Amino acid sequence: DEGGTGRRGERSEEGPAERGPGAAYHMFVLMEDLLDKLKLLSYEEEALRRHNMRPLSRHYFALPTNPGEQFFMFCTLAAWLISKAGRPFEQPQEYDDPNAVISNVLSELRSF
C-alpha cells in the first residue's frame, strides 16, 4: 500500500514540512537570535571593522547566497569569538584550506 501509514510515518522524520508549518522559518529565527547576540558582543566594531567587512543581514546564514563568502564570514566570526573567550586563535585567511580551518576551529572548541 503506497499511501499507507507506514510510508507516511517514514516521511515524517525526513523533511521540515512534516514538523509543522513554522519549521521552514526556524532558521530565520535562529539567525536573528545569532545576530542579536553578536551585536551585544559588539561584533561590528571588534570583528568586522578590523577586517573591513560589512555587517550581516538578518538572514545572512539562513539563505545560501555565496557559500565561499559565507564560509569565510563564519570562520572570521568563529576565530573572533574564540579569541574573545580568552584563547589565542589565528584569524583564518580567505584562501586557507577549508578543511584545515574547520578542523582548527573544532579542535579549539573541544579544548574548552
Distance between the termini: 51 Å
Strand content: under 5%
Provide the helix percentage: 40-55%
Tell me the structural class: mainly alpha
Question: What's the number of extended β-strand segments?
Answer: 0
Overall spatial form: globular
Task: Flag low-confidence runs.
Answer: 1-14
Strand and helix order: HHHHH
Compute the gyration radius: what is it?
Answer: 18 Å
**Assembly form of the protein:** single chain
Q: How many helix segments?
A: 5
Main sheet summary: none
- Rounded mean pLDDT is 85
Q: Any idea how many domains? A: 1
Task: Describe the structure in brief.
The chain has 112 residues and is mainly α. The chain contains five helices and no strands.
Element layout with pairings:
Elements: H1 5-11, H2 26-40, H3 43-48, H4 67-84, H5 98-111
Can you tell me about this structure?
It is found in: Cell projection, Cilium. The protein is built from 5 helices and no strands. It has 112 residues and is mainly α. It has one domain (25-111). Helix 4 runs parallel beside helix 5 (98-111).
What keywords describe this structure?
single chain, 112 residues, mainly alpha
